[in-house]
Amino acid sequence: GLDPKRVRENASQVSNLLSGIREQLQISSKIERDEQLLNLPPSDFVPQLQEIERSILPYHCLWKDCAEYQILESIWMSRSLHKCDAEEVGSRLQGLAKRIKKLHSELNTTGQDLAETIMSRVRSFLENSFELFSLLSDKSVRQRHRDIIRTIANLEEFSETTSFSSIEHLVRASSLRLEE
Fold first, then answer.
1. DSSP code, position 160
2. Among 120, 7, 114, which Cα is nearest to 71's?
3. What are the tens digits of pLDDT across the range 22-60?
4. Distances in Å between the alpha carbon of 127 and those of 43, 91, 168, 176?
């Protein structure tokens, strides 16, 4: 898996690197203007820095999206189900998947591997868990419904304060038993 601390560190390092390059771009642009005033041939710092910025930007976006995914996943999985908005979760995940898919071609092999790891996790949640998450976090689910689910899934507790991560595996196991 992806270590959340390492992801945050990498996102921060790439962000700092991009900020430093943008700072140097501003300085180089000033130098370029001074060179023009002095009728000196322009140095090639600006185009080189712009190329570096263009090559780092996809990694900045990827690490930022990776960190965002981990933060949001931990919130959605640990928050009380009645406080979750499944529509927002689905929308955020779809947007994240779209951005990462768009970045994929701009990355080297290592970056593509990271993008594929995140895409796999997003797809897995959307395909395997989102429907259940959406159902359980629905605002119209009342305590009597939770009691039925609790009985069927053999849960010790299932109330409006229950988090998805605490019951997902139990509900899945029960639904598999019911299908058999």
1. T
2. 7
3. 999 999 999 999 999 999 998 999 999 999 999 999 999
4. 53, 14, 14, 16
Bridge partners (DSSP) listed for residue 80: 163
Q: Is 79 left (phi over 0), alpha (psi -120 to 50) or beta?
A: beta
Rounded-to-integer distance, Cα 154 and Cα 32, Å: 71
DSSP state of 80: B
At a CB cut-off of 8 Å and minimum separation 6, what does 149 contact?
A: 136, 155, 158, 171
Give the integer Cα–Cα distance in Å for 144 and 96.
35
Q: How many whole angstroms separate alpha carbon 43 and alpha carbon 113?
A: 37
SS3 content of the chain, % helix, strand, coil (to 5): 80, 0, 15
What CA–CA distance (Å, rounded) separates 93 from 123? 9
Condensed to tens digits (0 to 9), the pLDDT of residues 70-124 reads 988 888 888 888 788 889 999 999 999 999 999 998 999 989 999 999 999 888 8
* Residue 143 neighbours by CB distance under 10 Å: 11
